[in-house]
């Protein structure tokens, strides 16, 4: 029988998994809106997780992009509370051998300073994103205060800049470390289209450049 | 109050009206209101004649636009049938009913008659009308007179008696509350101490008392009492001032509470210690007429002094704030493409205010472009009096035919199908129940109107029922015209306007703190300090608050769920659950023994956990013990090792029924068997009993601070029941189905969102920087707008949301929330001259000199310093010659009349750098027209112009 600590952990992981999948879906990766994938009920998840010996590694996912099949992303769940260099190295090997360029690492509390350095060194080759479990319990893009964000394609961005006769630097900005920007995993130079509901206008569209 | 003038004969009436105004106007004598036994005219007719006596208003179609509805101060109800005749109704510049007072001819309200005159007939008509009214009023006052004396505020004997009774009653109730407090039988209000609860009760009773005294006093006053006339007409004073003069001055507050004890548990040495009575707390039962006694006078001075100090301090504070607003926003303006840009053409808003409308031109409250009620009144009047109006025009030869009402506004945005006579819009009852979007679909409203206007138009049409095509046409034309006028003009200095529109009202905000709506005891910083916090983007705000809505859980009442969630959130420490504790010495052992307050713990929803499992001392540990252990960093018990209590913590029910928490510090130190541990502490006698005692009492102090439930970051959680129809005023409304909210004194928004039972999508926080960290820059921007507007609204100040939006956009446009402080503005701007003119002049100049910075002289401050026109309004447009066209010659075609150079139309919105790679683009005719730029000089046909619509460094060529 599972203790209540374990039940608690299972629920947390179930929520985290769901947010991760929603995040991947919103980024354009292949996620099915079915009971086996995105809508996996808690009981089944708990069952599967227990069957896998409650190992966080069992949650590891690899997803393909809906359009660009070569674009794949890994999601890792390291078991350590504070992740060291070793698992990072392992993940790297895996990315290297399977030729995957992007990965999300869901850490429980954080990284050791050395691991942080290691991640920074890997950054140009692989696109590694770090999320804390507490940040993923809730999907912030569903929050009432968060308006709809969409990432513009390069073509759309060009059209926008032409339309308003703008240089990139003249757009409003959003930090790459902004929670919503991190949710979409955008990189510097991309433009996010934001559709707010406004008291005066009903709907108001603005754009922000990722810096 | 002119309309109170009695009915009077022709001579008196027309004398009043005309000879006092010399040759200013020639009134037309209307039909007398009373015909028999002699013709008599009323004061209302007099007023109407004065309003109508303008040659422009002789035009029936303009006159028809002068409709106004306003409830004056004494308004009771029933609109035009108000028993106090305080509902002013004006149709086609004719006063139909109501006594005219401040709300009709004042400047405060948008429903005022003078405002309507100004909007619909123009400023000259309004000014002339004001002039006539002013002349009339002053003449009337000098003849009829108006005086105020001590008699006006003398209370009647009956009033004195009634007041004495009320005071006696209220004092008795206060005394009984104090008695309950002393006996400890007072039920504390949620989240309050006993003391706070008592203060709350007393405050409520005494403010009721003052209210009642005021009511009595007003009932007692005759309507012709001079003080009443002044208050009701809005000339000076309010009903509160009257009742203070006549009946009772009321409670004096210092720092938002009753007067505090400054003389050893009493407010003044005249009272016994610990006196909580009304008199000792600063309640003034006397009126200004009766006079205050020495003690009352002292308290009154305390409150008065606070008011003076507050005003003095606030003036300086808001003044500085306004200066900073101005510096941060000064060079924002509307560009020709409708965007709001800074001086180096960075976009702050893509469309000003979201809808591109000018706040100055908004007709209705809450920034609405059109006052629909008034519009329909006009249309209805026109409808009903069409024949009469036409007739009047034909009959009076003096009327000049003005422009037609339906003016050609260029290529119309109204589909022609809508204006055909066959168009008959009918609305069935079933359609009225439809949502606004459905209505929008069924009503042909031009898509060029801003979305909110379209919605409101559909709404107002739908509530009107069937319209015939003439009404429909009028409606469309009027709305279209109003909207055309309301569009913001390119070049408008929206930043400077926003800075003043926010800065000025904040000087009016009085009182530092306010009690939180709905829940007492939650004191939220309000007023100027709060605005300051917000716009400075302060890292640590004084009263952080998280508002959380609850999840909808089937089969569970919201209140029950709310209590459960509160337990999960609110921080409870062991000390709050323990009744008493002691160190127990046994023959060979010592431990801490706490008796838990089981009732309190259960009230708080804490599972103390004396259950069967525990009695068997099973391996399952109750959450309480687990939490304690985790905080003490004691090792977890080994499930194989029984009894579990041997690991140092145990909950245990004694025979007498009390629940005990027992702690063996030595047991936890090393998790061996019990006897082994005992030996480690006592057997070798390596420590004395004094040492053990010291160790235990240290542990005891630490233990009491341990968190038994909730999150340590949350000091207090209060449930708040929203009224079913309550909504947040700023557009996003909370779902009303779950009407219970949690208010947490905390800034730990993320933990609260992550808590089960809370609806994570509806958790709000008043700390902008926290919102930025958790939800991102956009949510922070929304929160900023909402907080500023709410703070202003709490003080009865309304500011157009467009101004606040612009401020928030400016603060967040760099991607992080920047305060309007010298650091924030430093990050927003690059210009050295501008920064040096703000603060730390020498530092900026030194830095610039050291790093050889250059300044493009584009912003307002820089331009002013250099003595050049500012890039706002007409100064935004400049004429330049294209470089390749004039070669290397520096030609000032405009001044020298040399036309040999080729000028090509160019519109640039990125004013800077367009010679470095920005291409020149042809502009549409419209844009050229809107550039307000007329090239008057004769020019050769092949000559071309360079229009620089946003200033740039090329501006120098033309000047």
Describe the overall structure:
The complex is a heterodimer of chains A (211) and B (959). With 211 residues, chain A is an alpha/beta fold. Chain A has two domains: 4-44 and 55-138, RNA polymerase, Rpb5, N-terminal domain (Dna-directed Rna Polymerases I, Ii, And Iii 27 Kd Polypeptide, Chain: A, domain 1, 3-Layer(aba) Sandwich); 141-210, RPB5-like RNA polymerase subunit (Eukaryotic RPB6 RNA polymerase subunit, Alpha-Beta Complex), CATH 3.90.940.20. Helices cover 37% and strands 23% of the residues of chain A. In chain A, strands 1-2-4-6 form a four-stranded mixed β-sheet. In chain A, helix 1 crosses helix 2 (42-51) and helix 3 packs parallel to helix 4. Chain A is globular, with a radius of gyration of 19 Å. Chain A starts with a helix and ends with a strand. The mean pLDDT of chain A is 88. Chain A: This is Dna-directed RNA. Chain A: It is found in: Nucleus. Chain A: Belongs to the archaeal Rpo5/eukaryotic RPB5 RNA polymerase subunit family. Chain A: It holds the Pfam family RNA_pol_Rpb5_C.
Residue ranges of chain B: pLDDT <50 for 5 or more in a row?
396-434, 611-620, 670-686, 725-738, 887-959
- Which strands sit side by side, in order, in the main sheet of chain A? 1-2-4-6
**CATH fold name of the largest domain in chain A, please?**
Dna-directed Rna Polymerases I, Ii, And Iii 27 Kd Polypeptide, Chain: A, domain 1
> Pairing-aware structural class of the strands and helices of chain B?
alpha+beta
Outline the secondary-structure elements.
The complex is a heterodimer of chains A (211) and B (959).
Chain A: H1 4-27, H2 42-51, E1 61-64, E2 72-76, E3 82-83, H3 85-98, E4 102-107, E5 110-111, H4 113-122, E6 127-132, H5 133-136, E7 148-151, H6 154-163, E8 173-174, H7 179-184, E9 191-198, E10 202-210
Parallel strand pairs in A: 2-4, 3-5, 4-6, 8-10
Antiparallel strand pairs in A: 1-2, 7-9, 9-10
Helix pairs in contact in A: 1-2, 3-4
Chain B: E1 8-9, H1 10-18, E2 40-41, H2 43-52, H3 60-63, E3 68-71, E4 87-91, E5 94-97, H4 102-105, H5 113-121, H6 123-144, H7 157-183, H8 194-220, H9 226-233, H10 239-246, E6 250-251, E7 283-284, H11 294-329, E8 333-334, E9 340-341, E10 347-349, H12 372-384, H13 386-395, H14 416-419, H15 429-432, H16 436-442, H17 451-464, H18 469-486, H19 494-507, E11 513-515, E12 523-525, H20 527-536, E13 546-550, H21 558-569, E14 572-573, H22 574-577, E15 578-585, E16 590-596, H23 598-603, H24 612-615, H25 623-632, E17 649-653, E18 659-663, H26 665-669, H27 674-683, H28 689-704, E19 707-709, E20 717-721, E21 740-744, H29 749-754, E22 758-765, H30 768-775, H31 777-794, H32 801-812, H33 822-828, H34 832-838, H35 841-850, H36 860-866, E23 878-880, H37 883-886, H38 893-896, H39 925-930, E24 946-948, H40 955-958
Antiparallel strand pairs in B: 1-2, 3-4, 4-5, 6-7, 8-9, 9-10, 11-12, 13-21, 13-22, 14-19, 15-16, 16-18, 17-18, 20-21, 23-24
Helix pairs in contact in B: 1-2, 5-6, 7-8, 8-10, 11-19, 12-13, 12-18, 16-17, 19-32, 20-31, 30-31, 31-32, 34-35
